[in-house]
Write a structure and sequence with these properties.
alpha+beta, Cyclic Phosphodiesterase, Chain: A, four-stranded antiparallel β-sheet, 4 helices, 34% strand, globular
C-alpha cells in the first residue's frame, strides 16, 4: 500500500489558495487534493498501518499547533509537480519530519523516501501535455503570502486510479491546542 503523512491544511486555506492561484489553470489540483507531505511511505504492509497511525497520534500529543506561511511557487520534474514554497514554519516542519521518522523507526521498519525533505504544498500534478505551461506558470512574480495555523497530521492511502491519485484518509490526529497565558 502506498501512503503518506501530511500536515493538515484548513479547508478555508485550501479554498484561498485555489481562489488566488488556481482559478483558470485546469492542471492544478482542486482544494481537496492539496497537501503538505511530511513523510511519503512508498510501501507499507496492511498489518503495519495501525502502528503508523499510533506513531502519528503519539507525535501529535507532544506538539503544539503552529503558524505556516507559503509564498512563491516552484515545480519538480519539468512541471510534473507544482508546489507552493513554505516560508514561515519551515524549520518546525523539518523537525516534525525528523521526529516522525524516528517515531516510526522505533515501531516498525518501513521503506520511505530517503531523499532530502523539502516542505511544500503540492497543488498541481499536470498531465504531460500541460507540463510546459506549469513550468512557465510558476515563474510569475505575483505570489501573495498565505498564512494558516497547522493543527495536526493526517495519514492517507494514495491510490493511483484512472484520472490520477486518490487520497483516502486512514487517520487524523490533532496537535495540542496552543494555550495563551493571560497577562
Amino acid at each position: 500500500m502506498r501512503t503518506f503523512v501530511s500536515l493538515d491544511i484548513p479547508e478555508e486555506t485550501k479554498r484561498e489558495i485555489h481562489d488566488r492561484y488556481v482559478n483558470g489553470m485546469d492542471f492544478l489540483n482542486p482544494p481537496k487534493d492539496m497537501h503538505l507531505t511530511l513523510l511519503f511511505i512508498e510501501s507499507i504492509r496492511n498489518e503495519d498501518v495501525a502502528e503508523v497511525s499510533k506513531a502519528v497520534e503519539h507525535l501529535c500529543c507532544n506538539k503544539n499547533a503552529f503558524l505556516v506561511s507559503v509564498c512563491g511557487a516552484g515545480e519538480f520534474g519539468g512541471g510534473r509537480v507544482v508546489f507552493l514554497k513554505v516560508t514561515n514554519g519551515f524549520d518546525k516542519i523539518i523537525d516534525l519530519h525528523s521526529a516522525l521518522c524516528e517515531e516510526i523507526e522505533h515501531t516498525i521498519k518501513l521503506a520511505y523516501e530517503e531523499r532530502a525533505f523539502f516542505p511544500h504544498i503540492t497543488f498541481g500534478r499536470p498531465s504531460h501535455k500541460d507540463r510546459k505551461l506549469a513550468v512557465e506558470y510558476v515563474k510569475k512574480d505575483e505570489w501573495p503570502e498565505i498564512n494558516f495555523l497547522c493543527g495536526g497530521l493526517s495519514f492517507f492511502e494514495s491510490r493511483n486510479e484512472k484520472g490520477g491519485y486518490v487520497h483516502i484518509l486512514i487517520s487524523a490526529s490533532a496537535f495540542s491546542p496552543v494555550v495563551r497565558q493571560q497577562p
